[in-house]
Amino acid sequence: MAVGFKRLDNEHYVNEPESIHVLQRTPMTDTCPPAAPANRTKVSLFDSHAHLDAPEFDADRGAVLRHAHAAGVKEMLIPAVTAASWPNLHALCESEPGLYPAYGLHPCYLARHDDGDLDALQAWLHHHPAKAVGECGLDLFDPSLDFERQLRLLRGQFEIAHRFDLPLVLHARRAFEQVILELRRFGKPLRGVVHSFSGSTEQARELWKLGFSVGIGGPVTYDRAQRLHKVVATLPIDCLLLETDAPDQPDASHRGGRNQPAFLVDVLDCVAGLRGEDPAELAHATTANARRLFLRAG
């Protein structure tokens, strides 16, 4: 299979054995203002969104994990995209400490979801404890995706997350306002993260009021991401999570290549530079945020 990566436009397709996207190099140039690199011996990071079960890692997954650990990335949330991916994802997370599963139905894979998958998800969670429900959400970038079916799946996963008292991992490509509206309409307590956030400061603050953090990854490292830079610089630290979305959405220094969790340190340094904060302190804070959300720690 040819390796393919998402375009740098919020969050895009996750690779599966049948490739559904092709390599696209970002048109963006340069990077965000640098920060002094963190002392790597003291940094402990939580990658809040990494598709480590993707086939791009089949040949060297062990090495990828070793590189991540060497970089200080000791914990990762691994979100599913289809029901068919749940067993392998479960086995992966059982095989390595610090890997935490999320099970869900990604909106970009409507053709691979069956009508009974919501019932299957509920049954699966009864016997396979998870740290979150997802990846799920709405995608308005691809016009071929049936919006009403996306809504049915999303609302169903809202109910499941509420029933199991689990956080949600939300995809919202060009759909931040629609996701916020659905969260309001649901009317019951929910919590989670909107990953690969690229919306406005106002949208981020509204999500935070609704119980949702925002996930910041590789896109923030590109110079043209000026609005995202302002959002990251001004939001309260409590609502920020760091992520890679590996193997997709690499940061500026790894553009055009396969992303991996070890590269989270580049996101960390960029965000720290934008906020004028010490990277080690930012690492501590964002790791605590992720552990509090997904592990109920702290």
Summarize the structure.
The chain is 36% helix and 13% strand. The chain is an alpha/beta fold and 298 residues long.
Keywords:
298 residues; alpha/beta; TIM Barrel; eight-stranded parallel sheet; 8 strands; 36% helix; disordered N terminus
CATH topology: TIM Barrel
Count of discrete alpha- or pi-helical segments spanning 4 or more residues: 9
CATH uppermost class: Alpha Beta
What string gives the helices and strands in order?
A: EHEHEHEHEHEHEHEHH
Strand order of the largest sheet: 1-2-3-4-5-6-7-8
Report the biggest beta sheet as strand number plus sense, adding barrel if it closes: 8 strands, parallel
Principal-axes shape call: globular
- Based on the coordinates given, report the CATH architecture: Alpha-Beta Barrel
Number of strands: 8
Count of the separate structural domains: 1
Query: End-to-end distance, in Å?
Result: 43 Å
CATH superfamily: Metal-dependent hydrolases
Structural class, from secondary structure content?
A: alpha/beta
Proportion of beta-strand residues: 5-15%
Parts with pLDDT < 50 across at least 5 consecutive residues: 1-29
Q: How helical, in percent, are the residues?
A: 25-40%
